Every structure is written in structure tokens, then in C-alpha cells.
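Entry 14. Structure prediction run on the chain below.
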Amino acid sequence: MNKAYIDQALESFTEEEELEKVLKFLRQKQKELARRSVRELKQKLQQTLMQRGFSSEVSKQGIQLVFEEVEAETEESAALYQARKYYPKYRNLEPFVRVQKTQQALVRKGFPYALVSEVIEQVKQEEADGI
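Output returned:
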């Protein structure tokens, strides 16, 4: 292709149009939030947008707009989902080691330590109650 055509196409693609496309993509991916931490999802989406050729500035702006709507409650439900997945996995270990391994797994997933401790206690209580 001729370089002039490429330059002309890039100039006609405004920042508003680019942001619009980024927001559309991010809203489609927002459903993954139920299973991932907000921090992990933001990093993955930033990387994906950069690979698709969007500028860093527009990517960050789009992520900020989409995720300002996300509340702590959403992250807590995602952490609880992950804790329910990992805690039973370590049932053959001693209780202290079981909790420790589950905490490590959730922190590696990007959840804050304070939240991890809360959801593990909740999962332990659910298991004790037989839910």
C-alpha cells in the first residue's frame, strides 16, 4: 500500500472514534469481571488493546471510564467465586496450610489481601454450615 493512503487513513481516524471502539470492546469484555479481579482484568485488557493497535492514552481512558462503574461488591463476588473454587481443592491439607494456599492463589489472581481474608472466612463458614 502507498504510505500516503495509510497516513490519510490514520489522520481521518479521530481520537473520539478510537475511544468509541475501545469502549465497545471493553463493555463486551466486562462480563469476565465475575470471575477475575479488577486489577487482573484491567491489565489483560490494557495489553489486548495495545496489541490491537490502540494508543496507550486512549486505552487507559477507556478502561477508567468503564471500570469507574465497577463497585467493590463486584470484586468481592469474583473473589468469593475464586475462593469457592480453590478452597475445596486443598481439602486434604492441614487447615492452616489449606487457608494459606488458598490465600496465595487469590492474591496471585490480583485480589487485595484484606478481601481475600474476608472471603476465605466466609467460605470456611459455608463449609462448616454444610452449604
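The CA atoms of residues 84 and 123 lie 6 Å apart.
Filed with the rest of this week's runs.
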